[in-house]
Amino acid sequence: MHLAALLFASALSVGTLALDNGVMRTPPMGWLAWERFRCDINCENDPKNCISENLFIDMADRLAEDGWRELGYVYVNIDDCWSSMERDAKGRLQADPKRFPGGIHKLARYMHDRGLKLGIYGDMGTHTCGGYPGTTLDKIQIDAQTFADWEVDMFKFDGCYSNATEQEKGYPLMSKALNATGRPIGYSCSWPAYQGGLPPKVNYTLLGQICNLWRNYGDIQDSWDSVLNIVDWFFENQDVLIPAAGPGRWNDPDMLVVGDFGLSMDQSRSQMALWAIMAAPLFMSNDLRTISSGARTILQNKMAISINQDPMGIQGRRIVKEKTGIEVFWRPLLKNASALVFFSRRNDMPYRYQTNLGKLNYTFGSYKIFDVFTDKTMTLKDTTDFVVSVNPTGVVMWYVSAPAKRNLRQKFRQTILQNKHWTVETDKGSLRKNK
Ligand SMILES: *[C@@H]1O[C@H](CO)[C@@H](O)[C@H](O)[C@H]1NC(C)=O
Ligand SMILES: *[C@@H]1O[C@H](CO)[C@@H](O)[C@H](O)[C@H]1NC(C)=O
Ligand SMILES: *[C@@H]1O[C@H](CO)[C@@H](O)[C@H](O)[C@H]1NC(C)=O
Ligand SMILES: *[C@@H]1O[C@H](CO)[C@@H](O)[C@H](O)[C@H]1NC(C)=O
Ligand SMILES: *[C@@H]1O[C@H](CO)[C@@H](O)[C@H](O)[C@H]1NC(C)=O
């Protein structure tokens, strides 16, 4: 298929309606506690790292003061192990009083005062995965109302300790209950991850109508093996997953582990690039108080973020899988622009991959290329051969402008200028020319 035909095919699949709560029209961005901090409740011995209001306040301060918020990283999300082991006298969930002495409502206010949002966690079942009180079918309404009363902005509904029948009732019921509170609350459903992530057990049309995002697959860990395993599953099943995604409804391959211990800098760029291609939610799970400048630079890359946040919300795909271990990924973007990622599965040395845009099915024309991680620019005709040098387990990532044809020279000049002096509007997810 040619680029235009592919675009058309992608556009056709975006017909399904999304959950009508107005939020998350582009993939949500922020910070989520789980991968890095797990269920560390040992505040006596580990006060800086335990699941407590101090941890979330620290991360909120970093997001607000270190340039993250302005780039779109606005959610501060609590995961498991936040609650007391007992519901209160009125049957409501309550935060652990020792670790969250101010309570969740006050924490939400703290976020809102700083232009941030608060996310919280619950579980469709008798217990959370960590053994805290779960939300059985009879508790759905009261828990939704409790989160709304606390002015929470996002809710992740895990699925430990429930069966398929209960999940089939519970996830849509919670969607209704959240809506009935009148507060727009982004709704993250772990449901498909508990049902194998694929049809016929998973109905992605239904998910798009009731959830804003959903975990399709297993939890990420702090290792390249884990990242690669997730990447493999998502792109092997891309024909099922791509049509499910769109504004307000996203596949979630799980958190970014960039800035932790398991990934090299090349692997960190690979995770960022592939999550941008997948239109994945960008929830970092790292320690923003001590993050290295290298990891920060990757996570704060404006061009990668703007690709992730493209307003069309079309999830990208793998278009080439070479025997040499080089793979090419492509995502259509607003205004006939696109993103390309050249990825190497090799483990010997940087590989010089030769191809041209025509071979990648780009139509006739001249394209301005912006290299996302080196800031270099160049112009390529569809017929011009080029070579990219891709590091082992690394990527080269390009933003490719709309084609400029020879008889449209004036228009082309404008495109170059825009690319040289672009800025990012994270709220709209679009590129804007600098003044
Ligand atoms: C280009 O289009 C052809 C014909 O539709 C298709 O067979 C091929 O897989 C496409 N190649 C890429 C890289 O998308
Ligand atoms: C609830 O659902 C209705 C109908 O889909 C929608 O118009 C409304 O905005 C929703 N409200 C919230 C708070 O999600
Ligand atoms: C699921 O759980 C419910 C209630 O706990 C039980 O009544 C039902 O039989 C279970 N269904 C299956 C298929 O295991
Ligand atoms: C999936 O859900 C949609 C929307 O609720 C429904 O119309 C459709 O029949 C379901 N598909 C299957 C195969 O159950
Ligand atoms: C995008 O490409 C299509 C097909 O080549 C063309 O008709 C359309 O005018 C282009 N749109 C923009 C905004 O450049």
From TrEMBL:
CC per GO annotation: lysosome; membrane
SUPFAM superfamilies: (Trans)glycosidases, Glycosyl hydrolase domain
Pfam families per the UniProt record, alphabetical: Melibiase_2, Melibiase_2_C
GO molecular function: alpha-galactosidase activity
Enzyme class of the recorded protein, top EC level: hydrolase
EC number(s) stated in the UniProt entry for this protein: 3.2.1.-
Entry's Gene Ontology BP terms: glycolipid catabolic process; glycoside catabolic process; oligosaccharide metabolic process
Subcellular location: Lysosome
UniProt KW keywords: Disulfide bond, Glycoprotein, Glycosidase, Hydrolase, Lipid metabolism, Lysosome, Signal
InterPro entries: Aldolase_TIM (IPR013785), GH (IPR017853), Glyco_hydro_27 (IPR002241), Glyco_hydro_27/36_CS (IPR000111), Glyco_hydro_b (IPR013780), Melibiase/NAGA_C (IPR035373)
Positions of the Alpha galactosidase A C-terminal domain: 313-394
Signal peptide as annotated in the record: 1-18
Annotated PROSITE patterns: ALPHA_GALACTOSIDASE
Family: Belongs to the glycosyl hydrolase 27 family.
Subunit structure: Homodimer.
PANTHER family for this protein: ALPHA-GALACTOSIDASE, ALPHA-GALACTOSIDASE/ALPHA-N-ACETYLGALACTOSAMINIDASE
UniProt protein name: Alpha-galactosidase
Taxonomy of the source species: Eukaryota, Metazoa, Chordata, Craniata, Vertebrata
